Amino acid sequence: MRNRRRALGALTVLLMAAPAAHAAPAATAGHDWPDRPRLPLPWTDDLTIDRTGDVTPDGSVTLYGSYRCVREGMEYTRASVLVTLTQGRERHGLGGYDAICDGQRHRWLIDAVDVGRYERGPADAEVTLLKFDAAGSFVPVPRSAAGVDREVRLVGGDH
C-alpha cells in the first residue's frame, strides 16, 4: 500500500511538472538556440517550418512545414497558419493555410504567386499558428497559439 502511494505521488508530480517544463524555454525567449532539440508535447499546439523552400525564376515561393492544433474543450476552433517571408528588401505576407484543430500533426504548404521577387538563397520566415476563439463573443478573437522564426534556404523549384 505504501509503495502504491509513493508511485502515485511520483506520477502526479511528473504529470504536473511536464507542462511547466515544456513552458520553461519560453521564459528564455531572448536567447536563440537553433541547435537545441524541441520536444513538443502531444497536448499542446506546435508549429514547424522546413529548412528549405522552393522559388521559381519568376520569384514565386512555396514553403512547407507541419503543425499540431489542439481543440480546447468541446468547441470547434478555427485556426490558420500565417507566413511572412523576408529576403533583402522583399517582405511579404504569403497568405494563410486553414488548420484543422484535432490534436494530430498535419503538413502545411503555402504557395505564394505574384507576391514579390524572391530569389535563391537565405531568407527569414516568420510562421504563426493563429486560433480564432469565440470566447462567448459574437466575433471570433484571434490569438497566437504557436510561432516560429527561422532562416530558410530558397532553392530552385520545379514549378
Can you offer a commentary on this structure?
Residues 1-23 form the signal peptide. This is DUF6299 domain-containing protein. This protein is mainly beta and 159 residues long. The chain folds into 2 domains: 1-27; 43-156, Immunoglobulin-like. The protein is built from 1 helix and 8 strands. It has one helix at 2-23; strands at 46-49, 52-55, 61-68, 78-87, 90-99, 105-112, 121-133, 141-156. Strands 1, 2, 3, 4, 5, 6, 7 and 8 form an 8-stranded mixed beta sheet that branches. A hairpin with a 5-residue loop joins β2 and β3. The protein is elongated and about 45 Å long. It starts with a helix and ends with a strand. Residues 10-31 have low confidence and may be disordered.
Percent range of helical residues = 10-25%
Estimate the mean pLDDT confidence.
75
CATH superfamily of the largest domain: Immunoglobulins
CATH fold-type name of the largest domain? Immunoglobulin-like
Radius of gyration computed on alpha carbons: 19 Å
Number of strand segments:
8
Structural class, from secondary structure content? mainly beta
SSE succession: HEEEEEEEE
Question: Given the C-alpha coordinates, what overall shape results?
Answer: elongated
Major pleated sheet: 8 strands, mixed
Low-pLDDT stretches: 10-31
Strand content: over 45%
Keywords: Signal
Signal peptide: 1-23
Protein name: DUF6299 domain-containing protein
Domain DUF6299: 45-155
